[in-house]
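Notes to self after the call with IL:
- keep both proteins in one doc
- input above output, always
- annotate only the second one for now

Protein 1:
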Amino acid sequence: MQRFSCLALGLFAILSAAVAVQATENGPREVLPDTVVPLHYDLQISPDAAALRFRGKVAITVMVKVPVQDITVNADGLIFADASLDQTQLALTPPDVKLGRETLHASTPVTAGQHVLTIDYSGPVTRNTLGFFAMDYQGPDGPRRTLATNFEPTGARKFLPCWDEPARKATFTISVDEPRDQMAVSNMPVDQVAPLSNGLQRVRFRQSPKMSTYLLFLSLGDYERVKQTVDGVEVGAVVKRGDTGKAAYALDQAGKILHYYNSYFGVRFPLPKLDLIAAPGEISGGSMENWGAIFYSQQHLLFDPKTSTESDRQLVFEVIAHEMSHQWFGDLVTMAWWDNLWLNEGFARWMQTYAADDLHPEWKTGLRALSIFEGGKQADSIPSTHPVVQSILTADQAAQAFDQITYDKGAAVITMINAYVGRDVFEKGVQAYMRAHAYGNTVDSDLWGEIQKAAGKPILQIEHDLTRQEGVPLIRGAFGKGAVVLSEGRFAADPTTIANAASQNWLLPISVQSLAGGPAVTSLLKGPVHFSMAPPALINAGQKTYGRVLYPAGAVTALSSAFPELGATDQYGLLNDAAALGFAGYQPAGDMLTMMASLPASADPIVWQRALTLLAEIDSHYSEGADKSAFRAFALKLLHPLSARLGRSAKAGEDGNIQTLRVALNRLEGRFGDLGVIAWARGNVNDVAVNPADRRAALDIVAANANAAAFDALLEKARAERDPLDKQHIFEALAEVQDPALAKRMVEVAFGSEPPAGMTPSLLESLSENHPDVTWDGAIAHLKDPKTPIENTLRWELVVGIASGSTLPARISAIQDYEMTVPEPARRPFLGAIAAIKQNQHIREKAVPEITAWIAARKT
């Protein structure tokens, strides 16, 4: 990436608050002038939790590179009371609200060199879970309020005047005035505590290492902390009072992960402590990798042996592993700008799986991760896609970059390259990258150049092809006499959207294996490639290549015959491709059921979970009526052998993935109207003696099938529950309700004050999966209301997500109208909603009749 600089306008460059320009092919990037840069922030914060306000004073040691009169900082929603440079008053100018900036004017040019910029200011404590915000909950003896920060990507400017860009690294010292009966947590350990009047104390933390503003963290609340020492680092779990028992699992696993990462990255964790902090609800983004003080939504950290499930256990591990990997990839070494965000998020998404496979191989997380890659392919196959390395110009675009392309396609690309070069070579390259760029900022070629150097293979070209081009490669197979021939094209969920697009190809490592036996053969694909082997063959054996595979006509017969004997990874990948290609019209939609019908009841539980997900997706595309009833009857019959094998209830000592599959199976059968499983659920929902997984499944089934009386009873139970995590489980179940009238009520509940803090977006997302139009009708007025405590970019994401489940033509018009209220650079995701609606229409008109015909033919 080309680093930016500001032009010096003569000896005394006088810069206004205008955007500093870094040339990109898509226009200027919104960055601050390069003439003044921060070195150290000394920050004093005095919050008033009851009034939801705070006062701040920051002394910023800056380096002035060339003489200037104007110093511009990022500040969003802050009110400046006073500003000075080296104790000389600066003039305040009107803030630039649109860009989140404030310019301070000196009466005479400021000389080059170090200076101290001091600003007194104040700001709001919001209800949004970005910036500096409050989260309320009911403690055992009354209401409690936690204050916390969450800054990525550009929320630090809501908390302090700063240079809020990832490359503007500096050190930080934070002090906070807090009630003496509360605990404050920040990136570094406490250095000093001094008593103040009115029951307050001033807590000062040690100076941080050099880091980006978005990694700064502060929280205060009614916390408790448990700890252990691992590799010389104090690892702590910080939770609301009374929850230390729920932190034991996370603390134990964090210690193991820290030791593992110290070895893998070849650079030991450089801070003296690492805290994992649980929010009393959900935060935007799920969890946040603040250096030395990772902040988690409660379900991502807390594990209660009495109520948590095996699925919860694995989720907690994976999220901890994800956020802890950022302590190196993102915190120690940071992308230079948001266009390379995937260096952080794609790697962390990949690493959560990699670490799980090494530390908990019994979970088979690598197999489950195929669902992650599938999410990336789905997002990459619609018009709203973008290259992994994309052009980010504005703060809004930076927030939108946290999407499935960045995370899931990024993880898929890394998985492919790791498999191609081998894990030892890949690890060697990663360690060289860490050593070379610690405390610095990078672009993607810095990493992949090290991997290429270690591997001696064309890694930079492979990476470049997949990250600079948008779209999913379509690998077409042709079977000839003694040969398999592969060629490339591009896959689209709606092929008409790329009908006039230029041809594309990618350099891809791919493996092919004859179904007649013999080892898989790996070659680089870019243009036609011939494999000398007897067809039919399994293309993309091992499912490591990023792409879809379209087999020649008639090959599904051979593949379905061989399906029971294939490895679980290939079964999973074939199901994914058959579904995507069938829904898009590249091959018959019934092919996915042909393969599913070949899946034995003894197949890997993770493969069966994917099959259940596909059945639920097909069901969602049916209109109410006889055809939908026939599909559900077929599905229940298909699942009967599996149900008979698993039984309804958990068994002592069974494999955890079996338990997770049973939960998913019970829920799906309940959705499809199986009276036996519904009766089982009603008999177990309130039985505290049954396995937590069974009790949670029963809760979900009862809520999904609730009538008005049952819904009201569960709602009262949720209201009465004081523990935020248990309360969350009940509200999550209520969001699965099938009755449209109750779903309409649930929309209003989601926007109310009763669910745990920050839950509104996730509840709306769940509701829209079954009721997109009901959710839209109930939610859109709230999402247009500026008083609704949801950040703009998250509102836009919700609008897109809710609308994407619809088939109504009118919804397209509504999306287009809403889109006009969004800043133009941030409108691209709305193309995805429109494309999804059109695809839903196509599936209902074309794929669903094919599936219905396939089921009817199978009866005869």
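Protein 2 (the one to annotate):
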Amino acid sequence: MQIIKFGGSSVRDANRMLAVKDIIQTKLIQDPLCLVVVSAMSGTTDLLKMSAEFAVEKKDFSQFINQIKKNHLECIANLELNNPELIYKLNQQIKSLEEKLDSISLLQDLTPKTMDQILSLGEIFSSEILANALQKFSIKAEAINARSIIKTDNNYSCGAVDFQLSNKLIVESFQKEVGVKVITGFIAESAEGNLITLGRGGSDYTASIIGAALDAKVIEIWTDVDGMYTANPAKVNKAFPQVQLTFAEAMELSHFGAKVIYPPSIQPAMIKNIPILIKNSFNPNSIGTEISNIKKESRQAICGISSIEQIALLRLEGSGLVGVSGTASRLFATLATSKINVILITQASSEHTICFAVQPDQAFRAKETVDQEFALEIKSNLINPLVIDRNLSIISIVGENMRTVPGTAGKMFNALGNNGININAIAQGSSEINISAVISQLDEDKALKVLHEEFFFPDHKTVNAFLIGTGLIGEELIKQIKSHSEELATNHAHQIRVIGLANSRKMILQETGINPAELSLDLLNKGNDSNLEEIRKFIADSNLPNSLIVDCTASDEIAGHYQSFLESKISVVTPNKKAQSADFPKYQELQRTAAKRGANFLYETSVGAGLPVISTLKDLIKSGDRITKIEAVLSGTLSFIFNSFDGQKSFSDVVLDAQRAGFTEPDPRDDLNGIDVARKILILARECGATLNLANIEVENLVPEDCRTTSSVTEFFKLLKDSDNYFLEKLSTAQKKNCKLCYIASFSDGQAKVELKEVDANHPFYNLSGSDNIISFSSDRYKVRPLVVKGPGAGAAVTAAGVFADIIRLAGH
């Protein structure tokens, strides 16, 4: 015989029942006896439960009953069963249900016994409709109520099966039968003749009980997915079905939230060593997942990641726990007496604290129970009253190979930590096939994605980037991402997924990522009005691993949002200097937040465009060196101006040439006033530990005073000509000394300044040319000859390349 179970989604309507009929017909070719266990039509059990809950509260439950009736009568009509007896029977059962609910409403009393009777109707309805549908197609079929073959104790809603009696009845019922027996899942009967249910998901259990009793070759569970996935595919889009799992692995996964199979279902099959095959009724040709005692060979440490979305963590602590035998026994005995199920337990070796997780709706009852049990110890201040932490989730990695692969736990916790996910409690069983962590419920989806990426795609790193700013740098960055994405993925296993674009006017949000080939500024024409808070919320709610904002603007407003991005565990990559050079307390808070929330704040390009300035400085400091002095030409614009100013042209003409070449800001005064350079040296000084603010930096403003307040750039250039002689005299004085003019930022002895200086031929800045930047680091290790970093310091292409490098750095993080 064949044992097949169909879930609620597989029999939810006439079309699905016809698909089930096709599967059964195929099975009958292989064997003349087919035992089919069915769940209620999808959603029916929930409607029945809500109708009972409304009735006991004296609310109108008719909407639920009408929907149940409508769904089933529509299914009968669409199947064209034309069976008056079936319709009459269904109507009578609905009528009886309404009378029962009226009584509940009148008495305001809903007993577990009555609830089981109500919930059982869904399976009864679906089994009778499917049996009649099969008969219509000339298939010998009979509906059977599992009450006649599965016997339990009198524990309503989760009856304990009497296997000895049930096995005997099952064997007697089916040993000489042929055709299709459509059996109600979820339902059993006590020795006293009371209807008992086996718990939500109990239809799987019914199939397993029957299969084990009959020593079936395999027990098939048909559902609406292609098997047991590496993670919940609704939350992790890269999840994929596993072809094979062990009983132990499947039990762990199902216990910790994988809803493909009901956990108790595995036990009967495991005892008899009968494989369970998970199949998809919507895709019958898929391989599915086989659960057996065979451990497959795999290089992967884990087979899956699962989670429980809502739990409460309860903490019992106090000096009265230390060294006192029997405390744990008292704790869990009192919880068991109150029928409170404990999901997870962890205790520190100090014995000072015991943590355990329960369902949130049991938390308050657990506290009352435990506080009462330890009332004397609490009164004597030996033990504290039980503490409840809510809004938590449990995430678990599962796999038989964890026993032999070292470093699995470290890999798990490192991945969570790198993505700013804090762990409240940890538990690992002695079987070594499960490591569980309690985390914030807000982090559950992100944790699933992070761990799935870490364990199943360890060589493939993805960053999820939202690009803000579509000026020269932003446009150039888009070009570089488009041209290099394929090479990065192929040769370096790095994927840059752009999940959104924005400028000051429009934004486009796309969680699944924008195809690199379609990435362009034109997409913003289809976007909504730009909103930074909405962008932050979109990224945070998407819960994507390695998510970051790439700010390619010089906007104060966007820099002002860095704090909220970092608080939401969203990394920031930017050439924008505003946040790093803001008042020191704000700068310090950004750095603290980034470290605290596990986000990255990368701003390499804010000082030297594409040059490795900040990373070089950090490496020196981290390796124990002490910076004694920094000198730098940090403006590509001013570098170009003074490298071009040789006396052949007036100073004002050289500045005009720089503007026409695109080296300056639209208003060159923004370059000549030195504030931009001051921000850059401030950033470097702060990396060295200085607590300076912008106001503490002495800045030589190269804009003549009479040019500073003019209303237009054209007027500025006219007035600048009046200062040509001043700059020519400066140049002549320098040339007489065989020196050059350089606009230099410096930091030493805790002080920073920016000024126009003369440098001689022995100075490392003397041979600077074009728009190059140069930074000189003097330190304890580099005393005689400073460490020099030199190269292009301006231009959209090199700045975008530096930003791109920071993004790639996060991809390899």
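Annotation: The CA atoms of residues 32 and 178 lie 5 Å apart. The chain has a mean pLDDT of 91.
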